[in-house]
Amino acid sequence: MDWNRLIHFALLGGAGLEQYAILLVRVSIGSFFAISGANKLFVAGGTKPVYDTLVKAGVPFPRQTAYFVASVEFVCGSLLTVGFLSSAACFALLIDMVVATLTEAISTLPKGLSPLNWLDDFLYLPEVLYVLFFIWLIFASPGKFSVDYWLAGKLLN
Q1: For residues 53 and 101, is the Cβ–Cβ distance under 8 A?
Q2: Taking each helix axis from N to C terminus, what angle separates 18-42 and 86-103, rounded to the nearest 10 degrees?
Q3: pLDDT 10s digits, 75-90
């Protein structure tokens, strides 16, 4: 057994496999948002929950905003899935999730929690996890298995 490789992996991870991790996260989260946005746009009554949330939060033009949010999720999720304009798509979806967190998700947290328990519950929210994934993908790049990587190779050589 190669103890040096095992220790290296245990302490520093498997950088050689990073491109596969990026691909898995990018395609998974992109597909999730593309499907979610498509269901809101193309299924009867799909924007109703978004509309209700926006009305409750006092967001102006809630009907138009609901369709805008659903479109952002569908288009940017689709772009992210194939890895085209990935950073811009991640940024748009990041904003979408920050707004979702502020308008809806935080209100689901129990009242009267200690600061540490509130932070624990806050970090458990899926929207917060999505924000962290988007930040990571913006800085990690869309990876070698993306249209962006292929296009950069064509345009920058």
Answers
A1: no
A2: 60
A3: 999 999 999 999 999 9
d(CA 10, CA 5): 8
| Percent of the chain clearing pLDDT 70 (strictly above) | 99
Phi, psi of 18 (to 5 degrees): -55, -40
Q: Phi/psi of residue 130, each to 5°? A: -60, -45
The answer to whether 109 and 142 are in contact (CB under 8 A) is no
Indicate the SS3 state at residue 28.
Answer: helix
What digits encode the pLDDT tens for the residues 123-153? 999 999 999 999 999 999 899 999 999 999 9
- What is the distance between the alpha carbons of residues 130 and 117, in angstroms, rounded to a whole number? 20
pTM: 0.87
Rg of the chain's alpha carbons, rounded to an integer? Answer: 19
